[in-house]
């Protein structure tokens, strides 16, 4: 079901309020307290529960106080393919109900009263609208989240799982009563003999226990009550013996208290009689004050009437003088208006002549200016084409040579690094000196060894050998090897840079870079010439072809204009300067004439306004004179109806009497006097009641004393103990049978619940996903088979739901409702999620996180309605906001 709109009229303190909701997103309805936010949802609830003619107290409570209007409620909802407007005027026995089927168009209809209500309920049932689920998802101010109540004993709805729409969404195969399933129940995995056994055990269990609460019932409950009653009577009999001893002591205490109360009552009666006399005096003074006040008010009315008559006569005389003056001013304004209007009409006649002359001058200037343009355009095109040719040649050369400044710098840097590494290698290498001491042959193998050399740089392994005598292998140290490796790597990097640039060495790269720079400079010069040639003509065409075609078109247009130029006009000026002078002269003449015409028109319009104001003033005075005359007559008649004005001396005497009476009445202070007297009477009444109660108690105690002597408490106690023993035996027999049935039922129920618990997995996963956004990714929730959150676990610590903080309970309870609302598609029994001033115990950070979840859920098509007095608490970017405080 989707909720599109709610309208309230004369509802509690709301005269009229209409709210339109986002049907597929979040709507935040906000406003101060007592403005009627909760009334919106209450009205929807009443429309779904009661007919318009009901006298139910819930409907009577919404009637406006102090006004006779009837409450009116109207909603617009969507259910399945239908869009419905449903309206009720609440009135006992004479209420009215209207239903308008707006969509689909093929089923549009209008119904009233009983037919309308029956059709509305039938359509909701056809579209699988689960109204009970709507109540479960709704969060109201009188049902805080996470708090235990009669409807939600665990602080959460315990019947989510048995709603048909929820069961269908979770894949439990829920069955409605009409489908043969248990009412509101969920289909289980039990079937065949197992189910028949379970039902037989259930029937046996129900002989001893109630189905919902598991309380004892039937014979078992009766036996339990009889046992309790027998034990109670036995205990009472035992207590009766003890009570008999206390009766005598209480009898003496009651008679003593009664004597003290009677003495206090005698003293209180005298005090009350004295105050009665003072109250009578205050009452006489109040009557005297009312009479004196009436006389003073009448005297004031007479004086006011005389002043009003004089004022009205003066106003009438002033208005007659203003009327004669306005009449003269109106005649003068009419004469001035006729003169100014004639002058403006004469100037309007010659305006077209000035406009024609200005238009011809402007066309002549345009024609002469256009004569020079074709040649200039053609010259610019020629220069641009030559520059384009040079640009294309430079681009061809640049395509063959890619060695720019960046490439040259890369090659030069690589060469410098290699040269530096080579120098370091040679400078730090050890030297091996070879000297022949005999004619024996000596060979030297290794880098740096040359024929006949005596000194060898040791940059790599070198072998010295005298064949048949000795072989010496000399290897460089670790420092020489590192420098050698660095020289090898830098030489490889330099050679790679040369290969990538396509040059032999750094000198060749320098030469190619110079050629590249020269080509870039030539291209920039040609591009500057191209831009310069086009700078003055690029506004005449998007390319050179268009500009050349424009030049041809301009020559043809100039020739055509010269042919159709009026023969009666002055000849075409010889130069554009002369043409511009003529244009300026025509503009000046036209402007001067326009100023004269505008001045004359403004003056005529001003006289129009002045004349209209004069006439309106005259008409107003003509209307007001009869009214003032009538006011004078009414004041005169009012004066004649009133009594004669009293003398000042008599009036002053009346005021003095009024002041003395007020002073005495203030001294008596009748309100305080009456308040004290009322309290004294209440005390008197209470004391009289206490005395009566004590007298009755004294009589009762006398009867009890007499009865105790007749009853024999010991024999009664012995009989009660025997009866209690018999009741205990009967109860023990039934207890053994009841416990056996209960144990068997619990065993079967546990096995069935284990199978049902699997169906809670999709719901738990969705709630955990949302809980992770609020409490962190390490959170785990335990969800029961009735889809209530049993506990929360973080970091290995598990806390039961009812032991969590108030804020955490309300956050988890709301996340459970959000998950349930999201699981159910709107067309499959889904209903809006309505939150009325919730999350009162949550901090800012978690409210923001839940707001983000609501924003995400609304994107899936779930309708969310938030009612709040503080809209800043719910910062949801995509939400539609409705401010009830705005008109």
UniProtKB/TrEMBL annotation:
Q: Which Gene Ontology biological process is one annotated for this entry?
A: double-strand break repair
Name the coiled-coil region(s): 220-343, 618-671
One of the record's GO molecular function terms: ATP hydrolysis activity
Which InterPro entries has this protein been placed in? P-loop_NTPase, Rad50/SbcC_AAA
Occurrences of domain Rad50/SbcC-type AAA (ranges): 5-273
Would I find Coiled coil among this entry's keywords? yes
This protein's record includes keyword Coiled coil: yes
Q: Name the keywords, alphabetized.
A: Coiled coil
Protein's recorded name: AAA family ATPase
Report the source organism.
Actinospica acidithermotolerans
């Amino acid at each position: 079901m989707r909720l599109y709109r709610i309208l309230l009229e004369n509802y509690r303190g709301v005269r009229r309020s209409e709210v339109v909701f986002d049907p597929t997103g979040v709507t935040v309805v906000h406003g101060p307290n007592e403005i009627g936010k909760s009334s919106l949802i209450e009205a929807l609830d009443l429309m779904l529960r009661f007919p318009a003619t009901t006298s139910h107290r819930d409907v009577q409570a919404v009637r406006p106080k102090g006004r006779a209007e009837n409450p009116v409620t109207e909603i617009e909802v969507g259910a399945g393919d239908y869009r419905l407007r449903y309206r009720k005027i609440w009135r006992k026995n004479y209420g009215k109900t209207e239903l308008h089927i707006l969509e689909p168009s093929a089923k549009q209809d209008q119904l009233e009263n009983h037919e309308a209500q029956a059709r509305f309920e039938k359509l909701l049932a056809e579209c699988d609208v689960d109204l009970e689920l709507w109540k479960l998802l709704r969060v109201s101010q009188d049902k805080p989240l996470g708090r235990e109540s009669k409807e939600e004993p665990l602080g959460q709805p315990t019947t989510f799982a048995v709603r048909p729409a929820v069961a269908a969404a979770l894949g439990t195969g829920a069955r409605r009563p009409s489908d043969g399933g248990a009412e509101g129940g969920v289909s289980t995995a039990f079937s065949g003999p197992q189910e028949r056994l379970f039902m037989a055990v259930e029937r046996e269990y129900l002989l001893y226990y109630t189905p919902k609460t598991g309380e004892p019932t039937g014979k078992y409950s009766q036996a339990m009550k009889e046992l309790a009653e027998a034990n109670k009577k036995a205990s009472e009999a035992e207590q009766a013996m003890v009570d008999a001893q206390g009766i005598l002591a209480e009898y003496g205490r009651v008679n003593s208290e009664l004597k003290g109360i009677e003495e206090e009552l005698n003293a209180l009666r005298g005090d009350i009689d004295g105050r009665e006399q003072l109250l009578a005096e205050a009452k006489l003074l109040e009557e005297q004050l009312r009479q004196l006040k009436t006389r003073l008010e009448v005297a004031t009315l007479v004086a006011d009437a005389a002043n009003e008559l004089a004022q009205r006569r003066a106003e009438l005389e002033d208005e007659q003088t203003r009327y004669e003056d306005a009449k003269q001013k109106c005649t003068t304004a009419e004469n001035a208006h006729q003169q100014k209007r004639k002058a403006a009409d004469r100037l309007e006649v010659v305006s077209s002549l000035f406009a024609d002359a200005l238009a011809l001058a402007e066309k002549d200037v345009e024609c002469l200016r256009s004569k020079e343009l074709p040649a200039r355009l053609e010259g610019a095109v020629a220069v641009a084409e030559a520059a384009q040719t040079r640009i294309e040649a430079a681009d061809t050369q640049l395509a063959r040579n890619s060695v720019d400044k960046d490439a040259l710098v890369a090659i030069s840097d690589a060469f410098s690094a290699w040269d530096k590494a080579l120098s370091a290698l040679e400078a730090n290498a050890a030297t091996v000196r070879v000297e022949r001491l005999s004619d024996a042959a000596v060979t030297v193998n290794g880098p740096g060894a040359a024929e006949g050399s005596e000194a060898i740089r040791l940059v790599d392994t070198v072998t010295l050998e005298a064949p048949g005598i000795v072989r010496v292998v000399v290897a460089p140290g670790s420092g020489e090897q590192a420098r050698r490796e660095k020289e090898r790597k830098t030489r490889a990097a330099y050679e790679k840079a040369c290969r990538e640039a396509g040059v032999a060495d750094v000198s060749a790269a320098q030469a190619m870079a110079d050629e590249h720079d020269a080509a870039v400079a030539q291209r920039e010069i040609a591009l500057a010439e191209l831009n310069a040639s086009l700078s003055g003509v690029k506004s005449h065409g998007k390319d050179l072809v268009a500009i050349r075609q424009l030049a041809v078109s301009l020559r043809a247009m100039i020739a055509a204009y010269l042919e159709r130029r009026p023969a009666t006009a002055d000849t075409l000026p010889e130069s554009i300067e002369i043409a511009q002078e003529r244009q300026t002269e025509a503009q000046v003449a036209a402007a001067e004439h326009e100023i004269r015409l505008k001045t004359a028109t403004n003056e005529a319009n001003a006289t129009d306004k002045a004349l209209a104001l004069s006439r309106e003033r005259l008409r107003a005075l003509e209307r007001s004179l009869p009214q003032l005359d009538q006011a004078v007559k009414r004041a005169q008649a009012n004066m004649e109806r009133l009594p004669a004005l009293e003398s000042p001396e008599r009036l002053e005497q009346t005021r003095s009497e009024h002041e003395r009476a007020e002073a005495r009445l203030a001294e008596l202070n009748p309100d305080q006097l009456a308040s004290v007297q009322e309290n004294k009477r209440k005390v008197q009444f209470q004391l009289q009641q206490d005395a009566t109660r004590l007298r009755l108690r004294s009589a009762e105690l006398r009867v009890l004393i007499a009865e105790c002597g007749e009853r024999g408490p010991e024999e009664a106690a012995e009989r009660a103990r025997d009866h209690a023993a018999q009741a205990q035996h009967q109860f023990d027999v039934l207890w053994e049978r009841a416990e056996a049935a209960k144990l068997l039922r619990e065993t079967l129920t546990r096995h069935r619940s284990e199978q049902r618990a699997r169906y809670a997995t999709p719901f738990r996963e969705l709630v955990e996903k949302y809980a992770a956004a609020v409490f962190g990714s390490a959170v785990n929730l335990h969800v029961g088979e009735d889809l209530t959150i049993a506990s929360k676990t973080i970091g290995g610590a598990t806390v039961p739901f009812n032991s969590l903080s108030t804020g955490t309970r309300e956050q988890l309870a709301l996340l459970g409702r959000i998950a349930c609302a999201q699981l159910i598609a709107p067309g499959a029994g889904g209903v809006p999620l309505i939150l009325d001033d919730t999350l009162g115990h949550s901090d800012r950070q978690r409210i923001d996180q839940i707001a983000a979840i609501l924003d995400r859920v609304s994107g899936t098509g779930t309708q969310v309605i938030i009612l709040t007095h503080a809209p800043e608490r719910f910062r949801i970017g995509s939400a539609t906001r409705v401010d009830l405080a705005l008109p």
